[in-house]
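Schema walkthrough. Field components (list of strings):
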Amino acid sequence: MDSSLSSYQPLLDFLLRSLSTLETTFFKIPGSAVVARYVKSSHQNDPGRTLLELILLIFAIGTLLQSRTRADRDGKHFIKFSEKEIDELVDEWIPEPLAETLDAKEQADLAAVPVIAGPQGPRPKLLNGKTVLNFASYNFTGLAGNEDIKTRAIETLRKYGLGSCGPPGFYGTVDVHMDLERDLADFLGTEAAILYAQGFSTISSVIPAFSKRGDIIVADRGINFAIQKGIQISRSTVRWFDHNDLKSLEDVLEGLEKERKKRKLPLTRRFIITEGIFEKDGAMVDLPKLIELKYKFKYRLILDESISFGTVGRTGRGLTELYNVPASQIDMLVGSISNGLASCGGFCAGTTVVVNHQRINGTSFVFSASMPALLSVSASEGINILRNAPSILTTLQDNIRTFRSILEKLDCISIPSHPASPIIHICVRPSSLQVPQLSITSSGSGKPSNPASVQPRDPPQFDIDGEERLLQEVVDEVLAQGVLVTRAKSLRGQEMIEARPSIRLAISSAFTKKECEKSGNVIKVALVKVLGKRR
Amino acid sequence: MALNPPSPTPSMFKKKSSSNLSTAASYLSAVRAADARARAHGGTPTATPALSLSSSVTTSSEDTVLAEESDHEDNILYYPPIPPTSEQVFTTVHSEFGHCANSDYRYTSQHPQGVPVTPWLEQDPPYYILFTTYVSYIILICIGHIRDFFHKHFKPSTFQHLIPLQGYAPLNSDFDSFYTRRLKTRLDDCFSYPVTGVAGRTIVLLDRISHDFNVTFEPTGKRVRALNISSYNYLGFAQARGGCADAVEEGIKRYGVSACGTRLEGGSLDLHATAEGLVAKFVGMEDSLISSMGFATNSTIIPALVGKGCLVISDELNHASIRFGVRLSGANVRMFKHNDMADLESLLREVISQGQPKTHRPWKKILIIVEGLYSMEGTLVNLPRIMELKKKYKFYLFIDEAHSIGALGPHGRGVTDYFNIPPRSVDILMGTFTKSFGAAGGYIAGSKTLVDRLRLRGHTGAYAEAMTPPVLVQVIASMASIMGVSPSLPASFSPSSSSSSASTLRLTDSDGYEHPGPAPASSLPAWLDLPPALRDGSEGHDRLRRLAFNSRYLSRGLEKLGFITYGHVDSPIVPLLLFNPGKMPLFSRMMRSMETPIVVVVVAYPATPLVTSRVRFCVSAAHTKADIDLVLKACDEIGDVLDLKHRPGDRWPLEKIMANAIELVRMNE
Ligand SMILES: Cc1ncc(COP(=O)(O)O)c(C=O)c1O
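Field assembly_structure (string):
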C-alpha cells in the first residue's frame, strides 16, 4: 500500500511549496477551510491521501504523475558528472561482500544448536541418538505430541488441506480461523481477537497499525526484539522507562503530561507498551499498578503476553487471570499461540474496534496468507484442554518451584525471573559485585534515566563474550548429563540494549517432580563446577 | 489427477469401470460406490487412489459437507462434464483438483531462447473511461463527506470512536479512515469472504448477508460451492486427499503439531534440515533457510543483509513485506519505475556516481530487490536485462519469488528456470510456500556463507517460532513430487528429459543431485512414502504443464474477447482492468451469482494506482480447460453488461476461442 503513497511524495512536496503562495487566495474560496484541514492532518499522518484528493480537484495534474524518483537530481548536494566520469566511477566502485564468513566463535555457536530428531517433547531424541530431558524448547503446558491435538489436526487436514493459499482478505478467512478468534476472545474475556500467522510478527504489526508519526509511545527498556521493531516501524515519538520499574513509568508519564500542558501540544494517541512476562529475563509486570497508571494518565496499553499467555493463571489465561484483572482493561493484548498452545501464530485481543482496525491496517495480517487450518484447530483444542484441566498449570507451577528451590541457593548465579515465570533465566553473578543484579537494565544510582534515550543512566556492566563462554560451557556440561538447556540467544549488535547473557530454562508441565529435581541438580552441579573454576 | 497408465494395482474405480462407464450416471454411481466402500473400510486412500469425493474420516460436520455435495449431481464443480474412459484413473477429488485427461491441454512455461524480452506495454482505456473513473471517485468522495457531515451532527453515536473522547485521542481519526469507511465499505462484501474446506479448484463460501450496508455481516448458514480462481494455489497442492496430504498425516502422527520454540533455542528438528536441503536443491542454491511465515522471511532477513551505508534499490511495486524489511534495515532506499530497465540503469548510474547522500562516500553495498512475478500486475521481472546490468554495476540481486517459484519455468524452479539463467548468478532467492506448495512460510536461498550468516543474524533464528512439522512435511512432499525422486525415476517420465534438454544450467551437488533434476531419495525422510505418480515426478510435471496451459489460455482468451489485461502471457496471475470503481463490486457479485458461481478478487486503490481498479484471476493447475471456458464465458457476459471490452485489435467470439484453445495457447507473441 505504501508504495503508491510514497511515490506521490515528491509531488506532494512540490504541492506544499506552491501551497504557501496559493494560500492567501485560497482562503477566500468558500470551503477552503476543509481543504486546509486535510493538508494539515495529512502532513502529520499520511501524505498520500491528501494528495489523492488534491489530484482529483486539480484533475490535470494526474497526467504529470509520470515523472518520479528524480527528486535528488536538483538537490544542492548533487554533483554533475559526464557520462564518461560516471562509467569510471562505476568501474572503480567495489562493494563490500554481501555477508562475511562466520568466525570461529560463530561457527561454534551454530554447530552447538541442538537439533531434535523425531518428535518434539519433554524427552526427545537428539540427532546423535541420545535421549535428553528437554528444558530448552517451549512446551510449557506439555501439549507437544498431545494425542487429542494430533487427532484433531489430522481431521482438519482431511477437510481443509494444509495451506490456506490466500491472505484473509482474499478467501483466506476460513471458518476455523473465526472459531479460534472466538475461542481466544472467549477464553480471555475480550470482545474480539485477530489471528496472525506468526507470533513473532504479530506485535511488530500491531504497534504501527495504531501508533503513527507524532503519536507517543512509552515503553519499557527491557522489551523484546519484536516490540522494538514495531516501535521502529511506527516512527512514533518514544519515551523509555526503566525495566519493570513502574515508579519510573509514572515519572515519565508525569513528565510527558507536564510537557504537553506547558507547550500546549495537541492530543495525540498515547500508548504504554510492555510485556507481561519479559522474554529477555522472565520478570513479571505488576499489572494492577500498570492498569492504574494507564487510566490515570489516559494512555492505552499494549501488553505483550507472548510468554505469559498459556502459562500463568489458574487455567493459563495469563496475567489477567493471575492478577484477576479483566482483560478488557488491556486495550491491545498481544499473545502467541506457539508458546502456551504449542501451535504456530499470534493474536491480538481487544475491542471490536481495535480488532477490526487491524483487519485493514495490520500489515502482516493483510499482506500474508492466513495460517494453516490445522494449526488453528490445534490451538483451539489447546485452549479446550487448558480450560478443562487446570491441573496442567498447577503442575507447571510446581515444577517451576522445584527448579527454583534448587537453583536459588546458588550464590554464583542470579535469577532475574519472577517466581511464577515458566522461563527461568540464569545469569552469572559477577564475582566483584556484592549486590545482586536483579534486572537487565536497572539503574544503580538514585537519579532517573533520561526518558528520551533508550540507555538507562547507569547501565549494568558485563562482559558479554566471557559470560557467554562460561554459560555455553555449562550448557555443554549439562547436555553431557542428558539434560538439554540453551543459552538465551540474542542478536548482539542489533538489540537496542544488550541483554545480560543467560541460560534460559523453559519449564514444562510434562515433567515429573523427579525429573525436575534430577535436572535441577545436574544444572546446579554444572554451574558450580564451571563458575567455581572461574575464581 | 494425472493421466496414469493403468496401474499395476487396480484401484477400486478401475474395477468398477471395466464394465461400462460411458455415461455420467454410471460414473457417478462408481464414485458413490468407491466412497461408500472407503468409508466402510475406513481405509486411507494411500492404498486406494480411487475417485473419492468425500473423506474417509467420518465426523459430524463432515456429514453436512457430504449432504451438501450430494445435492448437485449434475454440477460441474463436482463432476467433470465428460466422464473419463476406462483407461483413465484419477487420484484426485474433482472439486479439489480437476480431472483433465486431454494431453493437448498442456504447455511448457519457458522463455523462448534467443528472443529478447519485450517490455510490456500498458494499455490505456478510452478517454471517457478515465474521465468517468475520476468523476466516480469525486462523487464517491463528495457523498462520503456529506454522509460524514450528517453522521457527525445528527448521529454522533456512530462517530464516537473517531473523535477525541474523554481525554483519549481516537485510535483512528475520521480523516484517516475516510477511505475505509466511505469507499471500501461499499465493496466490503467482496472482501474477507469466509470460506470452509480446501482452497482448491473450488471453494465453499459461507454465505453471509449485511443488514447495515456492509458494516457487519451475518452468516445465513448456507454454503455455496464456487469455482475458485482466486487462491494462490498455482500447482494445485491445496488438497485434503492425495499423496501429500497422506504424507502430512503420517508426519503429524510421527512429529506432532509443533516445533516448540525458535530455531536457535531448541526448536530445530531434523525435518528443518531436510526441508532446507531440499529447497536449496530445488532452487539450485548451496543452502537455504526456512522461516515460518513468508512475510517475516522478507521483513526479518532483509535487515540482516543491509544496514546503514547501504542502498536498496527497489521496484516501486514491491510487496509490503519487502518494504517493511527495508524500513527496518536502516538502509537508504531508492525506487525505480515498475520493471523499467532504462529507469533502473539511469538510477544506478546516478547513485553509484553520487555515492552516499551528503558525504558522497561510496556505498558499502547496493542491493536490488525485485519480485519474480508481481502479484497485482502479473508482470515478470526482466531478468536477462537485470543480469546484464548486474555484471556492469556490481550490485547484489535479491529476487522475491513468492509467486513465481513453482509456477514458472519448465521445471517449476521460478524465473531463473523460465529465462534459463543459472540460479547461482543471482545472490539471493527468496520465496514462499504459501502459494505453489500449498503450505505456509518462506525460504531464503543463497551461498552457504550467506545463509549461515542469516541463520545467526536474521531475526527469525533467535526470536521467531520455527516452522511446524505438518507444514514442513507438506513442503517436502510437494517439492519432491515436483522434482521427482531419483532412484525410482523411470526414464520415460523424467521431467528434465522431456523438456528443455537445451538447458545450460547444469550443476551437480556432492550427493549426485543435478540441477534442475530429481531429488536424490537420500535427501528425503526415510519414512516418506510417496505414491508412484508423485515419486516419479510425472504428476508434478503434469501439474506444471497444466498450469502453463491454463495461464496462457485465460490471458489469451480474455485478450481475444477484447478485455484490457495486464501482465505476461505465461503468468498465472491475470489481472483484468475494470477502471470504474463502481464496476468492482458489480463484477464480483455477478461472478458469484452465476449459475456456476465463480469467486474472484477485486483490487483497487491503494493496492493499485487510483484509476486501474482490476479483478485478478489466479489460475491453477487444478483447473481444467472447461473451468477456464467457464470463466471466459462469464467474463464475456459480464463484460458486455459492464462495458469492459476496450482492447483495440482483433476480437474473436467466445465459441471460436473455446474451440481453438490449443492454437491460441501455442501461438507465439
Ligand atoms: C511478493 C511477496 N512476498 C512475500 C509475501 C508474503 O508471503 P506469505 O503470505 O507467505 O506471508 C507475499 C504474499 O502475498 C508476496 O506476494
